[in-house]
From TrEMBL:
It comes from the Bacteria. Gene3D superfamilies: NAD(P)-binding Rossmann-like Domain (3.40.50.720). Residues 3-239 form the NAD-dependent epimerase/dehydratase domain. It comes from Sulfitobacter alexandrii. SUPFAM superfamilies: NAD(P)-binding Rossmann-fold domains. This is Nucleoside-diphosphate-sugar epimerase.
């Protein structure tokens, strides 16, 4: 596929884009800074400016595309990851403005250009737990896509609004638009630097529902969505299959979720951030396990 990818220089994007390249896709990365990776075309653009977004969406990805003489090729898909990635980086109103306006512009341009597949990054924070003021537990476990999304913070609010926009664009256009509620992204080098602390102090992971997603497995999820047509509008939780701490499910429930309803039996290491919908609808299956990448004997 010829794919327009936004935010490829970010923490997630710099791993997802190489994964997609390895699957044979052509990638144009649109960001405020380039991704220095062989085979990636880059375009510097402000996604909050609709004119810039439309220009990039209707333009050549590189000079070699001039050679056939048939005009500008069409994109087969758009993957929109660009965003201010959390609260407390920019002022709250700017975080909300940037994330909602950029998403509006990207999806609007994509559907007006009849691009049939749009995948956008939503967030675990939509469930209102990650950036809550004080502790907040989920309404039930495991948390699936039907769980209420009532956050308190500007970042998560922006993501809830982006989901609503995407649903509305899909209703009018008929495009396939899939939102990914991405859990805490872990890069390969972070297993060694972060996970010993998670093991020693599991309460560090409570705001993330003790879950995580390997950045390379996030690329796998995007590829699954690119290959799956005909779903209309859907949102998917995206996480790895097990907890990010060295405690069994039942002990975590006893220590942190004693009063939370448990809707079904859960495996000994099964994530509280359910990925069953992604497994069933797009065939997602994570490949990386922190237990295979962290030397427990050295912790």
């Amino acid at each position: 596929m010829r794919i327009l990818f936004t935010g490829g220089a970010g923490k997630a994007g710099r791993h997802v884009v190489p994964y997609l390249l390895a699957q044979g896709h052509q990638i144009l990365n649109v960001d405020l800074e380039p991704l220095d990776h062989e085979g990636v075309d880059n375009r510097i653009a402000d996604l909050t400016d609709a004119g810039q977004v439309f220009d990039v969406m209707q333009n050549y990805a590189n000079l070699s595309e001039l050679e056939p003489g048939g005009g500008t090729p069409a994109f087969d898909a758009v993957v929109h990851f660009a965003a201010i990635p959390r609260i407390l980086i920019r002022p709250d109103n700017e975080t909300f403005r940037n994330n909602t306006l950029s998403t509006y512009n990207v999806i609007d341009a994509a559907v007006r250009n009849r691009i049939p597949k749009i995948i956008f990054a939503s967030s675990e924070t939509t469930y209102g737990i990650c950036f809550a003021d004080g502790g907040r537990t989920p309404e039930y476990l495991p948390v699936d896509e039907e769980h209420p999304t009532v956050p308190e913070d500007s970042y998560a609010m922006s993501k809830v609004c982006c989901e609503a926009m995407a649903r509305s664009f899909q209703a009018r256009s008929g495009a396939n638009i899939y939102g990914l509620r991405i859990n805490n992204v872990i890069e390969p080098h972070e297993y060694e630097t972060l996970f010993p602390g998670f093991i020693a102090n599991p309460e560090q992971r409570e705001r993330n529902l003790f879950a995580y997603i390997d950045a390379r497995d996030l690329g796998r999820m995007v590829e699954c969505c690119l290959r799956t047509d005909g779903l209309g509008y859907e949102v998917f939780n995206v996480a790895n299959a097990e907890h990010s701490v060295d405690l069994p499910t039942q002990e975590l429930i006893s220590r942190f979720y004693a009063d939370v309803p448990i809707r079904r039996d859960m495996g000994r290491e099964e994530t509280f951030y359910s990925i069953e919908k992604a497994r069933e609808m797009v065939g997602f299956e994570p490949a990386y396990r922190w237990r295979d990448l962290v030397d427990l004997s050295a912790v």
